Amino acid sequence: xxxxxxxxxxxxxxxxxxxxxxxxxxxxxxxxxxxxxxxxxxxxxxxxxxxxxxxxxxxxxxxxxxxxxxxxxxxxxxxxxxxxxxxxxxxxxxxxxxxxxxxxxxxxxxxxxxxxxxxxxxxxxxxxxxxxxxxxxxxxxxxxxxxxxxxxxxxxxxxxxxxxxxxxxxxxxxxxxxxxxxxxxxxxxxxxxxxxxxxxxxxxxxxxxxxxxxxxxxxxxxxxxxxxxxxxxxxxxxxxxxxxxxxxxxxxxxxxxxxxxxxxxxxxxxxxxx
Length: 274
Ligand SMILES: C[S@@+](CC[C@H](N)C(=O)[O-])C[C@H]1O[C@@H](n2cnc3c(N)ncnc32)[C@H](O)[C@@H]1O
Description:
The chain has 274 residues and is of the alpha/beta class. The protein has helices at 3-16, 21-24, 28-42, 47-56, 60-67, 79-100, 116-127, 131-135, 147-155, 168-174, 218-221, 224-236; strands at residues 104-110, 137-144, 157-159, 175-177, 182-185, 193-197, 209-213, 238-245, 259-262, 265-271. The protein has twelve helices and ten strands. Strand 9 (259-262) and strand 10 (265-271) form a beta hairpin. S-adenosylmethionine is lined by residues 69-73, 77, 111, 113, 116-117, 144-146, 149, 199-201, 215-217, 247.
């Protein structure tokens, strides 16, 4: 399939599924490949034939929706964000828990990919020398709508390239080397994570949470109306003083946001009750 054909097709199809084209522009290659494979499977000649197929077979829209999941991720993606989480946010949440006399620290990774994001949080907590964080009982819930991603997350085996943003000494102690540049995350770092298959647009865990990560999913790929609805739902599940982390290239949809960004790391916002 020619790139121009794929672009025209995506610009037509994405808004019909509640997605925004600009979010896909740079990463369209992954979706175009899958759409090309789907055309072959269906024996269709081109994207025009696929448009007609979609009009006559409405169930195909759900399949196309699944083909549009971008799965790019890596450990400690956006190092500044992880530095701020490790040096500031997680210790502060640990202090909050200690002063409340409640050890449990609840964290949700929404759109968790193949586990790189929730495991990065687990690694930060295990490597921290902050006494309050060390005493906290950290529970991470990680959800994704893609079963294949969740299977990969549970297996916890990654190519070396996935760890290129991690400080080397942390990487070396977090993983066991397998073969051919494959790394297995060590068992203690996997222990406190629960994975569940959920589509953010249809269901969410009840919470509440002290920290929610919703990065490079909702605020990149979904239309603004869905973004607003999801932001309200995330806000409801966040405790007062809790934190939301979004992608480094994302911004929140609402001008009157119930969140204050951290001045030195605007991808991390704190819930404020105005
Ligand atoms: C680009 S990856 C981002 C992973 C991680 N949050 C990060 O920033 O590195 C997007 C992930 O969101 C998942 N996803 C896409 N749409 C979703 C939805 N509606 N509900 C839940 N997860 C979704 C995809 O399967 C994929 O694993």
